[in-house]
Amino acid sequence: MDARSKTPPTSITEVTLDVLEDTLSFYIRTMNIAVSRDLDDKLEGLDVAKGTGKITTLLLVDSHPGIRPSIIAELILRDRSATGRLMEQMEDHGLITRRQSSTDSRVQELYITEKGAALAARIRPLVTEQSRDFFKFISPEEQQQLMDILKRAYRRIVGLP
Amino acid sequence: MDARSKTPPTSITEVTLDVLEDTLSFYIRTMNIAVSRDLDDKLEGLDVAKGTGKITTLLLVDSHPGIRPSIIAELILRDRSATGRLMEQMEDHGLITRRQSSTDSRVQELYITEKGAALAARIRPLVTEQSRDFFKFISPEEQQQLMDILKRAYRRIVGLP
DNA sequence: GAAATATAGTTGCAAATGTCCACTATCTGG
DNA sequence: CCAGATAGTGGACATTTGCAACTATATTTC
């Protein structure tokens, strides 16, 4: 419950968020929407639209030639099936190629294409910049704090040391 | 680019995230997946499944009787159309009711039903608890820090003072 | 007071995403 | 050599969200 007034609120400023006001999950979930939207705008038309999936994959394949889908799946927190489709999509776009591993024929090795590499090079600064700009109203120290904490959380969740 | 070894990585521990390693957006987006999934599990079967939308709406309507959809839309960062459907859904589930405002007939006033109120009461502690538990591996002080920063960001984005 | 502009909500359409599950192929360990 | 794990695929499906167009009603402006 909350401070209830007789008349319904007519502006967001008259509203409190109930328990969500102090709920970390709420802010993470909501900020996600905002950040993602902003990122999409900044990357508009870049073949790597919506979703952390594509960006992460592109960069990962670029910097770890031969990486396999299942590893990417773990890192982006999706199941193999979703990840597979993502790979397919990126292959269709000519960004990566898939090759069967010679040592274990169940696994695929992913490699970046020229086009993919070019895109990766182009995207890297954009992604960094977007993040910096988006959060520029909080101090660099706080950004760092925030990131340290979230990084720790992330690593713990995906099972990194 | 990144430390590249000749052989492809076979475990996530051998992988670095390229520039994403230091990109706040990446962590927000990824943590969002994790938190949301966890929350869904905790709330399973509770008529308020997937999405911040439903929870926020329920609590908001419960603590601000007569609140209108457009305000909720702003707070949950969705457009009116998506929000409208959300309201419809919740009405179908018997959680809220919609009534035309007597002072401005364009506007709807939302009210909680008994069922909705009961659910809100039940959910409040769950949501709080979920958030606390999910982040329990980071210290309370840091959780607080994190929340303060994100709260500030959120308020700025939706345009709250 | 009439016209122009803004706001609230609805609806159709479409696209994209993610999930569950079952299935095949292949590896590894006992 | 068999049992059980792991990698990838494909199907079916539900869900969500966004855009754009449209109506109704308020508000502002001249």
From TrEMBL, chains A, B:
<dbReference type="InterPro" id="IPR000835">
    <property type="entry name" value="HTH_MarR-typ"/>
</dbReference>
<dbReference type="Pfam" id="PF01047">
    <property type="entry name" value="MarR"/>
</dbReference>
<dbReference type="InterPro" id="IPR039422">
    <property type="entry name" value="MarR/SlyA-like"/>
</dbReference>
<dbReference type="InterPro" id="IPR036388">
    <property type="entry name" value="WH-like_DNA-bd_sf"/>
</dbReference>
<dbReference type="InterPro" id="IPR036390">
    <property type="entry name" value="WH_DNA-bd_sf"/>
</dbReference>
<protein>
    <submittedName>
        <fullName>MarR family transcriptional regulator</fullName>
    </submittedName>
</protein>
<feature type="domain" description="HTH marR-type">
    <location>
        <begin position="21"/>
        <end position="155"/>
    </location>
</feature>
